[in-house]
Amino acid sequence: MKSIKRSAEWYYRPLHHECFLPWYSPIEQLDCSTLLSTGTPPAAMSRGCLGMFRNEITGDLSNSTVPTLITGASKDRLTRPDASAYMGDHWQNAELMMVAPGNPQGLLESHRDVNEAAARLFQKLKGNVSGCQKLFPMCCCGAD
After folding, report:
1. How far is the C-alpha of 62 from the C-alpha of 64, rounded, in Å?
2. Is residue 142 left, alpha or beta, with left meaning phi > 0 and alpha meaning psi from -120 to 50?
3. Which SUPFAM superfamilies does the record associate with it (predicted)?
4. Following DSSP, what letter does each residue of 39-91 receive, concatenated?
5. Rounded distance between C-alpha atoms, residue 75 and residue 80, angstroms
6. Residue 99 CB: number of other CB atoms within 10 A?
7. More confident of the two residues 32 and 141
8. Which of 18, 32, 59, 124 is packed most tightly, with the most Cβ within 10 A?
């Protein structure tokens, strides 16, 4: 495997979503996701992890009408596949997409499939101007 050498300024530059664009290689995308997670302040990471123990939203899932794409990965140990399936079954107006085989980085591993599913979701929203504008106030999808 080819070794990728990075300069110090590459690691410390501001990280933005552009590193997930399709023309970046999977190695560059993995570098970016790793760096994004290491840049999280420890206190925020701890609050988020501890908050997951107390998080109970199962009663709220059926009340949401926001069009949602739920992605799960078949071998994900962080968000188990049965939890993704449960959300897909109980969330109104949701589409479940399982990445197989997929690990916790399944979104990056199968980015083309995930991007196509997201594009289908936005295409549904494009015809529903009021829904699109409610979700995305700065929407510029071109729907009149």
Report:
1. 6
2. left
3. alpha/beta-Hydrolases (SSF53474)
4. TS-HHHHHHHHHHHHH---TTTGGG--S-EEEEEETT-SSS-HHHHHHHHHHS
5. 8
6. 24
7. 32
8. 32
Give me the residue label for tokens 């410390």: 12
- The two three-digit tokens of residue 74, written as one number: 């078949």
Residue 136 has pLDDT above 80, yes or no: no
- Per-residue pLDDT tens for 55-90? 666 677 777 777 888 888 888 777 788 888 888 888
CA-wise closest residue to 125 among 111, 106, 112, 139: 139
Tokens of 124: 């549904």
Secondary structure of 1-28 in HEC code, one letter for each residue: CCCCCCCHHHHHCCCCHHHHCCCCCHHH
